[in-house]
Amino acid sequence: MSELFLVPDWPAPANIKALITTRNGGVSEPPFDSFNLGLHVGDDEKAVNQNRSLLSEAAGGKIVSQWVRQVHDNHVINVHDELVEESTEADAIYTQRDNVACGVLTADCLSVLFTDVAGNEIAVAHAGWRGLASGVLQKTLEHFSAEPVSILAYLGPVIGPCHFEVGIDVRQAFQALDIKEIENQLPLLFQESETSGKWMADLYAIARIILASKGVLQVFGEPLCTYCEFDQFYSYRRDGQTGRFASVIWKESKG
Ligand SMILES: [Zn+2]
Predict the structure, then answer these.
(1) Confidence class of residue 144 from pLDDT cuts 50, 70 and 90?
(2) Is 126 exposed, middle or buried (0-12, 13-18, 19+ CB in 10 A)?
(3) Homologous superfamily of 5-159+215-251 in CATH?
(4) Overall pTM > 0.90
(5) 2: pLDDT confidence band, cut at 50, 70 and 90?
(6) How far apart are CA 89 and CA 80, in angstroms?
(7) Which of 64, 146, 173, 249 could form a disulfide with 150 if both were Cys (CB 3.0 to 4.6 A apart)?
């Protein structure tokens, strides 16, 4: 049966913790059943807040959560002493603070978790095709003091090439990034669809290429398709009105 949380399997340092929620284990009613963490999707606010409390408990209760208003762009919030309002527009969160759970909410878009190998700095990015094409991963990496070779990344569940049909605009947006490896692998990253003039896009592979182009080669995660895995994840493409699951990362004090 379905798991309640995915714990990323990556060689992050011991003080770095991360969780990816599923749609299971919460209190929201259909079509948000049941562990919806998004306040902006039409679900009952009380249910969402109760789900958020369940997430904090699952994370050990000692953390505070930082959410932002995701707009499919490339702005990164650096959380210093104070949390920012959830209404702040951003698509990635970076911090060096202990016990701040940086979270993004998705239902098909990719989430990417980051940490340096020393466990001093962390980040999370919301990266759908628009975010990826506007450089959200590169902008997130710019906040790190650590060199790219000392940064680990973990890719969360994302709508897979089995289901992510896109038009020419999406393919062109990635060609415009002018990353050689994207150009080299274009026929693989965008396989021709059965629908004429459309392609099946592989965001997971594209993200790996973008990270590699910046020198981040330690990339983990398994490509789980949000659309296929209906027991586990929300999918906007599949369901339209639906919930959002979270990818969160936080650091504990090294003691
Ligand atoms: Zn699929």
Answers:
(1) very high
(2) buried
(3) CNF1/YfiH-like putative cysteine hydrolases (3.60.140.10)
(4) yes
(5) low
(6) 17
(7) 146
